[in-house]
TrEMBL record:
Signal peptide: none annotated. It comes from Actinoallomurus oryzae. The keyword Nucleotide-binding does not apply. Keywords: Monooxygenase, Oxidoreductase. The keyword Membrane does not apply. Gene3D superfamilies: D-Amino Acid Oxidase, subunit A, domain 2 (3.30.9.10), FAD/NAD(P)-binding domain (3.50.50.60). This is FAD-dependent monooxygenase. Residues 4-165, 272-341 form the FAD-binding domain. GO terms for molecular function: monooxygenase activity.
Amino acid sequence: MKNVNVLISGAGIAGVTLAHWLRQHGFTPTVVERAPAIRAGGYKVDIRGAALTVAERMGLLEEIRALRTDVRRGTVVDAAGKSVASMDGDTFGGRTHGDAEILRGDLHRLLYQRTAESVTYLFGDSITALRETPGGVEVDLESGRSRTFDLVVGADGLHSVTRALAFGPQERFVHDLGYRISICDVPNHLGLDREEVTYVGPGKTMLAYSTAGQEGAKAMFLFGSAELSGEPSDRAGRRRALASVYGGEGWEVPRFVASAAAAPDLYYDSISQVRMDRWSAGRIVLLGDAAHCASPASGQGTSLALVGAYVLAGELAAAGGDHHAGFAAYEREMRPFAEANQKLGPANIKRMVMRTRGQVRVSMAMLGLLDRLPGKERIMAKAVAPIHRAANAIALKDYRTTVRSS
């Protein structure tokens, strides 16, 4: 095996999953992560299609199902707080075929536990420079350390530092879809019990939910960037932006906005996609959102991270560590899958955030009608069928067998 010493930038879902599979195939991964520890909390995520197979091959599927969010009900309300439509949680979330919904922090912890004793983690540090040599990549770290690795993997998200250093500035690859997302923990003042409630206004959507074992609740704000008077540059500005965008909305929205203003964990970012002609350059390769972010609107970011990590490690191992062959095979396998899932994002966000009051009224009327129709579950299943086609748009090899046999 060649090129066994691999540096992974980013200890998110993609990076930690890759570290697991590289160790399984005989590589020696090191993971560098800017945060001081694995991040807890986070939003709920769905694991679908091919990603379920990866979780099963990691021996994690039963543990994931044991930690499922168990959201039992989803409801859409109008400005007066009146229920427009209500259905069971799986139908509301578009989950079928054994899909698993779990809090991102719970999944992250399960993955990290698989690698904590066998993988070196450098927390509180990050890459500042990369210099490729004939025999490896010289890496400078923010801590002042310099080390040489055979290969470097950028699994450091939408705003990837590794991508910027190896491929060029963010503006070349990150495409803003014209929407913003903000998420935070909030008090459960509605007394939600494994429920999700969604409010839709013109140019903006807000939802809150509680999950099994969670005392508080989560709130998510989705809105068009056209609603902003200017792009906020700091945390205080983002809080002011939420208050401005959602000012005057009905239901419990003002109360949730006030809670968000006091939340220490407020997350805020653009709804964007990463589009690149190639994911590797020499001994450096990108993974997950850094390579092909499909945006949160796709609902497939976590699944893409799990599958991509599995495929990258497997193809690199199948090539005997030859990075030219391994990276090329990884991209051949993953690119059609990534592109199929990227197509979901622009269409989904337009359904999630209505531009005008007229669109909101029509959507609410249609939901109200659907709520009274027999067989609404079948209708909803047809509506989410594109997600499940994209989630299964790859024929996964069993690298556990192919790598050993080769």
